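user: can you give me the structure for this one chain? tokens are fine.
assistant: on it. calling the predictor now.
[tool input]
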Amino acid sequence: MEDPDNHQMINIEDVYVSNNGYSLDEPVNFSLNRGECMALIGENGIGKTTLAKELTGLIPMRNGKTSYAQSTRSRLSNVAISLQNCSNMFFCETVEKELIPQNKNKDQKYLAEVKKYLIEMELWDKRMLNPHDLSGGEKQRLALLIALLKDSKFVILDEPTAGLDYRRMMLVADAIKKKIRSTPVMLITHDIELMFQVCNTAYLLSKNGNKKINVRGNECKILDFFKGKKS
């Protein structure tokens, strides 16, 4: 049997989260392995998005350390992140160019994958538009595709299905399942159905203490957590 530690990719140690003047009493500690999608859950304002921004360097991390395999650093590098407020994440003049980096513009397999996702997310007809001319929902779907298609070591998705109908939610779920075959994913979500579709673990941020649990076998505990019966 293979040693599961051989697949350990992301390790977060002693990271303290502070949001709007409030700090959790306990530091955040978890590991993520290849093939793992972990839901980061907690009440509104607890610091989920703040943690995501700290891990990617969008805001300074006050303490703690992160590591990828055996390489330790103050923040993770080569991380793809999709945030709810994503307008400042676009840098190219067209939707299509946001998704097709220079080194991929002749890769027919990659181009076919981009086209497939654009059609599924109903952005194909918008591919030549400036991303800033898209609607709010279209910008969110574009940011999600950028994160999923990027060749990264770690993916963080912040509420990727907010405002999406069931059909599109399932498309997102399928895309995440494909991504986690090679890349660990951290998912911030209030979408319980999506979490049960794609996540095998969950990390609970709580004033009563942080903990990581398996999703399978703890469905009732997770549902109670979302309903406010936090234990």
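assistant: here you go. The chain has one domain: 4-227. Confidence is low (pLDDT under 50) at residues 1-6.
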